[in-house]
UniProtKB/TrEMBL annotation:
Entry superkingdom: Bacteria
InterPro entries: DctP_fam, Leu-bd, Peripla_BP_I, TRAP_DctP, TRAP_DctP_sf
Descriptive protein name: DctP family TRAP transporter solute-binding subunit
Annotated Leucine-binding protein domain residues: 346-667
Spans traversing the lipid bilayer: none
Disordered: annotated span: 700-722
Extent of Basic and acidic residues compositional bias: 713-722
Length: 722
């Protein structure tokens, strides 16, 4: 008991060592009053980052021809990384080099580098560090008064304990030293261990006093301390990354020429640091083996660690934003040869733009299906993996992505995203290269009616020709005075054709038609004209950014027209941005599926797996459910066709897709979904309307749907089907 109390006392004394309140007094006492800029870091003098920092100082002197000189400030052992970062923010210190974990309290995005098992090897680290995603992360430091000059290697993290770690239960009741980071605390909590944020210089003492009995750290750092009965388990479960940070005030005070020289020096010093880090790792491993028992984690334990921590990616996707996560995931992939031992499915979608949630919903539908497929042994004796690239709804980027995917020898199909213009631009290439395309969202009629023979595109989604009838019927339930507001691109024109033909069949014409361009922000004049021309209800076909501007403009009118919307608005945070406007505007949106009030056993089972995998708990938290359902069904039908084809051959798989007789799916029980030249699996009868409530889409007629004031004012209530 006494030893336990002493350990608790030591822990309390060390808890602040890695997270104390920023103070710059000690640093200031060490700075000089000359004109030299200053640099401080907490790493030991023999470390790769310290030696590379010395080289950086020399390079700055050379490249500025002596105009900018940097002097090392020897930091006191009482000064934390937080204090040094605070000093740089204030301009009291000019440079520091600190682990990304230690920036998490001011720059949460930096925690992405702490995600367990994010990197497979150093090559993946280099790809991410050299990517535009990494540059974007560094640029975000500007708002914190920092300039991120570069990312440096720290090395893969391993586990050191005073008794062996051989099974999951060995993590219980262990106290692990970590760097300060909420994500790292959650990581060990998932594994069953407790955590204490302690500065590296206190680690050896904490082990000696039995205040901790484990830590995660790099080989180089472990080799620098002496721990009795040390056991080191090689897990490569995480990575330590460093940021070379400069004070924004100091940066802005330099001439443009010297700013450029400092960045050039940082780039050159980065290459030097990489080389040093590689050399030191090999030396440190030899040293560590001489003083500790070093062993590789078993494949069983490694799989358990990965499985238990998988949910962290999805938790932090929601906290930090799916766009940034997707950019990092794309950057780390080895696109020259991704997963050569696996069968691949590809996704080309908006994963980081204004409709990123649409891409996320498609990704999740594919992933949930692949989980089932792999649990049953995979396809053709191999595991199936998903690779994804962002197109941000830009056709040229979608073509580039398709070219990348087409070169993969183990590819069985490419899933498209929300953007019809992207898919339409890809049609010639798809059929020239005979790439099988699966469309779970893009709705333009010519995507399927593309005049290509044989046709390599299969869709489980809305078809604009059918959607036009459905949208118009919904509008006519409110009023015969129907206005149209359409995006000026291939998708908008596809809907214009369908809507005008549907109106003609009824001997009706639109009260007024307005077109808008992608990125347009001012809808006041368009709304004025629609109202002046007598539109009581407006059919909207467009994306979420413009949709939010339009609805917000409508909400300012005394008695705004109702809105019947195509589903392009649902693949984003439209509901959150337009929440105030939606209290005044009666908006109903085309959908095909909902997990809400859906008692089907298969749907309920999939919802449970969704919640478990993606850290959600309610059906209302499932992002863009139609996209997930469509992609799930398409992936399972693709798996059936691949099995019947017997080999990775997209022409043979395409032929087997056409032959599918029956498929019990999430959306429906499909009967000959792609037979007789019709490669649209959904029909008009599969469409429903939904209404936003508290940010979630509830099917019209749901027992949980509350009528808003605007809809109650209407004299002709909407039905649930055309």
């Amino acid at each position: 008991m006494m030893r336990y109390l002493l350990a608790i006392g030591l822990l309390l004394s060390l808890l602040g060592c890695d997270s104390n309140t920023p103070s710059t007094k000690t640093i200031l006492n060490n700075t000089s009053e000359d004109d030299a800029m200053t640099l401080a870091l907490s790493s030991p003098p023999e470390s790769a980052e310290y030696l590379a920092a010395k080289r950086f100082v020399e390079l700055v002197d050379e490249k500025t021809q002596g105009e900018v000189k940097i002097r090392f400030v020897e930091s006191s052992s009482r000064v934390s990384d937080r204090e040094m970062v605070a000093a740089v923010q204030k301009g009291l210190l000019d440079f520091t080099i600190t682990p990304t974990s230690r920036l998490s309290y001011i720059a949460p995005d930096m925690q992405l580098f702490d995600l367990p098992f994010l990197f497979e090897d150093e090559a993946a680290v280099d790809r991410v560090f050299d990517s535009s995603a990494a540059k974007l992360l560094l640029s975000k430091l500007d708002i914190q008064g920092l300039v991120g000059l570069s990312l440096w290697r720290g090395g893969f993290k391993q586990l050191m304990t005073t008794s062996p770690l051989e099974a999951p239960e060995d993590f219980q009741q262990r106290r692990f030293k970590i760097m300060e980071s909420p994500l790292l605390r959650e990581q060990f909590k998932l594994w069953g261990g407790a955590t204490v944020p302690i500065a590296a210089r206190h680690t050896e003492n904490a082990f000696q006093k039995e205040a901790i009995d484990g830590q995660e750290d790099t080989i180089a750092n472990m080799a620098g301390i002496n721990v009795e009965n040390a056991n080191v388990l090689i897990t490569n479960h995480g990575y330590v990354s460093f940021v070379v940070a400069m004070s924004l005030k100091s940066h802005n005070a330099l001439s443009p020429t010297n700013r450029k020289a400092v960045r050039a020096a940082a780039k050159e010093a980065t290459a030097y640091q990489y080389e040093l880090a590689n050399q030191q790792h090999a030396q440190a491993l030899d040293t560590l083996k001489s003083k500790a028992t070093v062993s590789n984690a078993s494949s069983t334990l490694t799989r358990w660690l990965k499985d238990e921590s998988d949910t962290l990616l999805e938790r932090y996707r929601q906290r930090l934003g799916t766009a940034m996560v997707e950019q990092i995931l794309q950057a780390r992939e080895n696109w020259a040869e991704p997963h050569p031992e696996k069968i691949l499915v590809a996704l080309d979608a908006d994963l980081s733009g204004n409709s990123a949630n649409s891409g996320l919903s498609i990704r999740r539908g594919i992933e949930l299906a692949i989980d089932e497929i792999n649990a049953q042994g995979g396809l053709l004796g191999k595991e199936v993996a998903l690779v994804a690239r962002d197109n941000s709804m830009i056709p040229s980027r979608g073509l580039d992505n398709l070219e990348t995917f087409a070169g993969l020898p183990n590819l069985i199909g490419v899933f498209s995203g929300i953007s019809s213009p992207v898919v339409l631009a890809q049609l010639d290439y798809i059929h020239h290269k005979k790439v099988l395309m699966l469309a779970p969202w893009a709705a333009a009629t010519p995507i399927i009616d593309n005049t290509k023979s044989p046709n390599y595109v299969f869709r489980v989604s809305v078809r604009d020709e059918y959607a036009a009838e459905f949208l118009l019927n919904g509008a006519l339930e409110i009023s015969d005075n129907v206005g149209l507001l359409l995006v000026n691109n291939g998708w908008g024109r596809s809907n214009y054709k369908g809507l005008t033909e549907a109106l003609d069949k009824r001997n009706l014409s639109a009260s007024h038609i307005e077109w808008f361009n992608w990125g347009e922000r001012d809808f006041s004049s368009k709304v004025d004209r629609l109202i002046k021309k007598g539109a009581d209800v407006v059919i909207y076909v467009g994306n979420p950014v413009e949709g939010e501007k339009f609805v917000s403009e409508l909400a300012q009118r005394v008695s705004p027209p109702s809105v019947i919307s195509h589903w392009g608005i649902t693949g984003s945070d439209f509901a959150q941005k337009a929440s105030v406007a939606l209290e005044r505007v009666d908006l109903r949106v085309l959908q095909t599926f909902s997990f809400i009030d859906n008692n089907d056993a298969e749907v309920s089972d999939l919802a449970k797996r969704y919640h478990l995998r993606y850290s959600t708990s309610e059906p209302t938290e499932i992002v863009a459910p139609s996209g997930t359902a469509h992609a799930y069904d398409l992936m399972n039908m693709l798996a059936t066709a691949t099995t019947r084809a017997g080999k990775v051959d997209m022409t043979r798989i395409r032929n087997e897709m056409q032959k599918i007789d029956k498929h019990s799916g999430l959306m429906k029980n499909y009967i000959k979904p792609f037979a007789n030249g019709n490669q649209d699996a959904l029909e008009r009868s599969d469409y429903i309307f939904a209404r936003y409530q508290n940010g979630a889409l509830y099917p019209v007629g749901s027992k949980n749907t509350s009528k808003n004031t605007a809809s109650n004012e209407k004299t002709r209530p909407m039905e649930n089907a055309p």
